[in-house]
Each structure stands twice: as C-alpha cells, then as structure tokens.
Write a sequence for this structure.
C-alpha cells in the first residue's frame, strides 16, 4: 500500500517538475526543476531495483550536467528569460498537438496491450540486473559502441576546451569584448592559452 | 509491478513530449538544451524500465551510453553558448545563423 502511494507521489512530482522546466520563466528555477525531475526519475529507478542506473543518474545528471547548466546560466547572467515573441506560433501549436497525440497513442497502446499480453509475460518481482553482467555486456556485445563513446568523450573534452578558451596574447589575458574580438580574430593567428 | 512498468513508460512518453513541446516553444538556446535533457531522461527511463521488466542487461548498457552522450552534448553545447554570448551578447536560437563572425 505504501509502495503504491509513494509511486503515485513520485509520478506526479516528476511530471509536474518536468512541466515546470518548460513553464518556469526564470532560468535558474528551470535548472532546479530539472534537478527535481532527474531525482524523481532516479527514485523511480530505485523503486524498479535498478540501483546502478539510479546512482549514475544522480551522479552524472543531477550532479554534473545540471551544475554545468547553472554555471552557464550564471556566467551568462541570464536570469529571467526573454519573453518570447509571437513568431512561429504555428510550429508551437503544431508541436503541442503532436505531443498530446504521442501521449494519447502511448497510453492507448498500453491500455490495449494490457489485455493482449499473455499473463505472466512480465515478472512479478523486479530484480536488479547484476552489475558484472552489464559490464561484461558493455565490453563484449557493445564493444564497438563503447569505443565510439570513448572517442566521443575525448572529442567533447577537446572541443569544449577549444571553444571556451580565452585568447592569450603574449601572456596577457584578453578580456573578451564583443566589438574588439571580431577584428582581433582576423589580425593575428589564434594562440593557445 | 506490471502496472509500474506501464506507468513508467507512460511517464517517459509524457516527459518526452514535454521536452519536445519545450524545444518548439522556447527561444533561448539554453532552455532548449534543458528540454533536450528532459527528452534524454525520458529515453533512459524507458530503457531502464524495459531492462528491469525483461531482466536483461542491454537496457542498462544503453543507459550508460545515453548518459555519456548527454554529458558530452552538454559540455560542448554550453561551451558553444559561452562563446556565442561573448560574440553576440545573447543566445537566442533564432539569431544563430552564422558559422563564423
């Protein structure tokens, strides 16, 4: 009984905070609601006995990615998001309609499938997938994807360093100024800092 | 338990749709990024639900890949936004139309 109540609570919490990410007018609040959504999903993972996934969700998503978001928001001094103008209204309403259609379709398919599924097809008890089995799977079956992911991470690290670095001209840090920077780019070759 | 898996899949579809609406709705590139993260989250929720329901490790393995892609995307994207903000003074998605300044 407690399990069901807690599940419904988590369901509503996660859904509401996901909506608030989009609705909230303030960038920092959006990021904090994103954290709440991720923690809600992590709690759902725990309820499904997927402990490894829950730990990764908390550490990587709620810990690293959202902190990166908050850093960027504060670096760019975004604060309140600019109110959107009336352009592309058609795209918006079309997107809203399509999304509602998607949810309706998935919900309808589930309702239909519940009767179609043979009883006992799904386990009554959700057991944790053993971590060694996952690890073995990653380095055997998905080895190619694993290697590609490592290359992707390397490229991402190099790319973000190259993009976000500040130019150093003879050891003096150039504080980026929108007007001066454009000319400066052309005159002298970019130097590594 | 069976009901929980179905509920999770429904929740995943809902969060995915909310993210999709946000991408179409928002103008700020950072807000669009947050919506993409929401969609990643929904996808991982689906993967883990199926992995637990079927008791197989594939879903968890794919979850690890998805989370890595999300992290890489966030790192590069946010660096790009800082650069864009330094050059243009805003990060409106509509005004990003140049590959160089």
């Amino acid at each position: 009984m407690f399990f069901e109540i807690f599940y419904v609570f988590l369901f509503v919490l996660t859904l509401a905070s996901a909506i608030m990410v989009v609705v909230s007018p303030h960038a920092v609040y959006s990021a904090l609601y994103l954290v709440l959504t991720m923690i809600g999903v992590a709690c759902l993972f725990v309820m499904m006995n997927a402990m490894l996934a829950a730990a990764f969700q908390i550490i990587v998503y709620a810990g690293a990615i959202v902190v990166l978001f908050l850093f960027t928001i504060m670096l760019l001094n975004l604060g309140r998001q600019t109110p959107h103008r009336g352009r592309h209204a058609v795209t918006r309403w079309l997107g809203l309609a399509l999304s509602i259609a998607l949810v309706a379709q998935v919900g309808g398919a589930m309702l239909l499938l519940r009767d179609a599924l043979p009883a006992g097809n799904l386990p009554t008890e959700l057991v944790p997938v053993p971590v060694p089995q996952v690890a073995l799977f990653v380095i055997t079956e998905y080895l190619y994807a694993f290697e590609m992911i490592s290359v992707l991470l390397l490229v991402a690290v190099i790319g973000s360093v190259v993009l976000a670095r500040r130019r150093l001209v003879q050891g003096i840090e150039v504080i980026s100024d929108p007007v001066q920077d454009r000319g400066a780019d052309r005159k002298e070759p970019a130097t590594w800092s | 338990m069976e009901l929980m898996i179905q509920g999770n899949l429904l929740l995943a579809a809902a969060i995915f749709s909310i993210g999709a609406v946000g991408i179409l709705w928002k103008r700020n590139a950072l807000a669009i990024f947050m919506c993409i993260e929401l969609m990643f989250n929904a996808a991982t929720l689906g993967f883990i639900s199926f992995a637990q329901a079927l008791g197989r490790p594939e879903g968890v393995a794919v979850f690890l890949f998805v989370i890595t892609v999300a992290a890489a995307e966030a790192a590069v994207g946010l660096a790009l936004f800082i650069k864009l903000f330094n050059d243009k003074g805003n990060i409106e998605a509509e005004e990003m139309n140049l590959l160089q300044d």
Notes: Residues 58-88 of chain B form the longest helix (31 residues).
